[in-house]
Amino acid sequence: MPPSNMDDIQPAFQNQCTVGDRNGALEDYAGQILFESTTSTFRMYGKSMMYAFRADENGSLEHLYWGKSIPPTDDLRFLSFSNVQLCFDPGPYTQFEARKQIDMAASPLVNGEFVESGTDEWRSFESSSKFVPHDIIAIARRENAAWRLMRMQDLKSGRIDEFEYELEVSRENKKSLSPELSRLREHHPTPPRTSSGSEPHHGFHDIEMEHPIPQVGRNTKLLEYADLGTGDYRAPSFSVVYEDGGAICPLTYKGHRIIKGKLPMTAAKGRLPELRGSEEECSTLVVEMQDKVTGLEFDLIYTVFKHVDALSRRVIVRNPTDSEGLSGDVRIDKLMSATVDFHTMSNTNMITLCGSWANERHIQLQPLIQGKFVTESLRGTSSHQHNPFCALTNTSEEMIETVGEVWGFSLVYSGNFMIEADVSETGRTRINAGISSSTFKWHIPAGDCFEGPECVLVYSDRGLEGMTHAFHDLYRNNLIPSRWHNTVPPVLLNTWETTYFDVSHAKILEIAKIAVNCGVEMIVLDDGWFGQREDATSSLGDWHEDKRKFPVGLSAMVREINELGLKFGIWIEPEMVNVRSQLYAAHPNWCLNQQGRNSRCEGRNQLVLDFTREEVREYVISKLDALLTESNIEYIKWDMNRHLTEVYGNAISPQKQGEVFHRYMVGVYKVLAHLNERFPHVRIETCSGGGGRYDAGMLNFCPQIWASDNTDVFSRLAIQSGTSLIYPLSTIGSHITTVPNHQTQRLSTLKTRFLVSLFGNFGLELDLRKLSQAELHELTNYISKYKELAPVVLFGRFYRLWSPANSSDQEAYAWMCTNFDNDNIKAVVAVFLNKVEAGRYLPRLRLRGLKEDETYIVEEIFPNSSLRNRNTGQLEVGGGVPQWQTGRQAITMSGSMLMGAGMPIRLSYDGDSCAFVLREK
The Glycosyl hydrolase family 36 C-terminal domain covers which part of the protein (predicted)? Predict the structure, then answer.
């Protein structure tokens, strides 16, 4: 039921929106949360987006709207009329409960409690000045009697804002107002009418309804958070089990708080990753819900951001100690961080990112039909196969990049997750996002609580492009560690594909001396440097240098690297252990595996350390602290090369084994948080067999993630395009590697490998000792150009101009970045031909994001020199004569021309590419 005491609500509301600004422009509401006490409606405003729901007559939260901003003067309750009672659809009350509500409506409210008629309390109240005559109650019953009584108590106590509406009175009863209601009218007169006779809108006036909002069952309503077993047969938001085996937990509205800024995750004790937000950037709403029988409490937490069309959601479950209804533990079997019910749309499509090892995050669009679709990971990581993201749209695949509405969901979590889409028989779609319920059970003892991970919701009315820009802005500004904001990372050379395990002091110095002359800024020592590591079968866990390979010690070699003018980074895999290691010999019980079982899986010859154990985390922290303290290491590549199996915590009680997956992830977060706090100058790049843990949770601790172990440019075009859907380019680890490619054996030009790597966190995995002088010279030019273009690419607006779905019949990609804050270059464009169709032309390339009335100098960089022999038809590459796409190296064109007419593009072979920079004239 809506609250009877508004004292705690109204001041918070006034802080968010004063009476005087309710008629302001919609953009003035950005970042604000408005509460309409007369209709129990909450509105949250983003940059140009609004999200709204209300507490209905039964205390449930009814979802109303999520889309383009709507003025606060518009009453949203009429949207509830799209709910229709269906046959066999359970209603909101049983007959007994409905009778009880009527009896309660005919009873006075004393200290927040209803008094039954005929009792001594009733007779005492009836003779007092607080008595509310039955004619008023009868009038108020037309919408919700109990709610109206509460409103009258607030009116009499003077707690209602002067612009909140009075009790609705039907026309036939207006002439026979009771003395009590007449007295209320005298203190709260009807607002003056305008010259046209209409009542002025002060933001939250009630609308006159001939019929009340229909009472419909839970299964046909749009709900904000859905329980299990009380008439809603769709996928629930949560599931709990009490000690008596009961699982019924209907939640009703208890109250709410509105807070300036972002409410930190104190219930999770800071262990989970989350977005940041100052009081100027965002506002937070905490809606308190309760199971009135057991006393179990749920806090639904919303934060809406001012500078983007985004909000975040999370849930806290509390088991209060002072509850009479509860005794002992409560077990959570399912807890979604966000639930959104969508009204019926035609041609609803769901977008996900899926793939496999070395083939991650391909954009997949599929129609949603009646039934359930689930994307999840059970691997202990967010996984190569699925990403904790989805989006809904009803726009066709050919148009979706720039046209139509998109609703995006991104879970800030790195472990097992689940996103489910449930399409009911009515055609409505429910999206649930949170921790995977398949591997999750959590016990909450009395007096304790549990807080789930955060889910980010983004709205766009400009297709995927608008959604991408919102996610990029939000994650760059409010998720990635702020010290890395707008910093260009050093150009690094990683030794993995150069030497694999065969590393030594002499080899690293030899490579470093060549690298520094090419413009490389950091050497990263990958696998093979520790223990007695000759291959993948030994030494994980023994984090000290191999004296056979580094006889004078790692710190001495690092000093030599620094003296060359280079920074130094190192590879580690702290979550893993080999059986052939000193660590395993000393602590075989530190692995995830049930003691007493002889069979277990080894992935890549390694086992997983049990990060739920404090002694394991302390060991890892001690080794990493020593490593980073003894040597001037400024970069860590944190790898994880297998998924979790035999997940059993030997230090955890049997009834809490369902908590191990989540506790493991929390343990990893704790170690990463320690490194961030103790060594803030160290840049961390996470990796999991490539892109197996590429998620927003990891970005809270590090500014970059290795996108994929597959560095082939033909594969990377799809991988990086999909990754860019929600993750900023500055986070995408992308390196130039050798050819034939080590994963696919395909060939590609150095130029194309450079251009693909340019649109990411740039680096090299090349054996520079094997390159010719001409190749070294070419590479040096590319590195120099990257340093010039990086501020535009990494911190600008990203546009997917072409992808195979919208680029004629040929598999072509075109990427573009703009940054008008940059002093020199305003935009960078690159085009890639994945697969040629002989005899067919590419369409003209229309640019986006430019200023129509601005004039630009368009300069092609690194032109092609291939030419087709007119006599034989043979394609002759490397003729030495530049083949400019526009006929010359630079042209001057208006933004209107470049975006409207476009540019001619002539590419000739698989892997061919071209690139341009744009400067304002």
Answer: 814-918
Given 165, 185, 215, which residue is the final one in a domain?
215
**Domain termination site, one of 215, 249, 274:** 215
Q: What is the CATH number of the domain that holds 318?
A: 2.70.98.60
List beta partners, residue 458: 310, 408
pTM for the predicted model, two decimal places:
0.88
Long-range contacts, 619-627 (Cβ 8 Å, 24+): 619/583, 619/590, 620/574, 620/671, 621/671, 621/674, 623/543, 623/544, 623/574, 624/543, 624/572, 624/574, 624/671, 624/675, 625/678, 627/543, 627/554, 627/570, 627/572
Tens of pLDDT, residue by residue over 15-31, are 343 323 444 689 999 99
Same structural domain, 450 and 378: yes
Question: Is it the case that residue 288 has pLDDT exceeding 50?
Answer: yes
Question: Is residue 709 annotated as part of the catalytic site, yes or no?
Answer: yes
Q: Give the whole-angstrom CA distance, residue 454 versus residue 463.
A: 24
Say yes or no: 389 and 328 in one domain. Answer: yes
> Are residues 908 and 893 part of one domain?
yes
Spell out the alpha helix ranges (H) of 145-189: 145-157, 179-187
Does 309 participate in catalysis according to the annotation? no
Residue 710 domain-assigned (yes or no): no
Beta bridge pairs of residue 904: none
Question: Largest Cα–Cα distance in the chain?
Answer: 110
Residue 107, pLDDT > 90, answer: no
Q: Would you tell me how many other CB atoms lie within 10 Å of the CB of residue 270?
A: 13
Residue 487: closest CA among 681, 639, 675, 308: 681
Q: What pLDDT score does 811 carry?
A: 86
Is position 311 within any domain?
yes
Range of the domain at 308: 220-479
Q: Which pLDDT tens digit goes with each residue over 401-417?
A: 999 999 999 999 999 99
As to burial, measured by CB atoms within 10 angstroms (0-12 exposed, 13-18 middle, 19+ buried), residue 472 is buried
Distance CA 223, CA 289 (A): 14
Please indicate, yes or no, whether residues 224 and 184 belong to a single structural domain of this protein: no
H or E segment at 332?
A: strand 330-342
Task: Tell whether 749 is covered by a domain.
Answer: no
Contact 664, 415 (CB under 8 A): yes
Of the listed 422, 639, 695, 912, which one is catalytic? Answer: 639
Catalytic residue among 154, 422, 709, 912: 709
Pairing of strands 310-318, 454-460: antiparallel
Instruction: Provide the pLDDT for residue 92.
Output: 67
pLDDT of 15: 36
Dist CA 290 CA 296 (whole Å): 6
In this structure, which amino acid lies at residue 775?
A: E
Residue-wise pLDDT for 730-775, tens only, equals 999 999 999 999 999 999 999 999 999 999 999 999 999 999 999 9
If asked whether residues 22 and 64 sit together in one domain, one would say: yes
| Structure tokens given for 51 | 């999200």
The token duo for 708 is 């994929």
208 and 257 both lie in a single domain: no
182 with 227, same domain: the answer is no
Structural domain includes residue 247:
yes
Q: 266: which 2 tokens?
A: 């104190």
Please calculate the CA angle 429-430-435 and round it to the nearest 5 degrees: 145
pLDDT at 200 over 60: no
Q: Domain tally for the chain?
A: 3
Q: What is the pLDDT of residues 831-870, one digit of tens each?
A: 999 998 888 889 999 999 999 999 999 999 999 988 888 8
Residue 420 burial by Cβ neighbours in a 10 Å radius (0-12, 13-18, 19+): buried
Same domain, 161 and 246: no
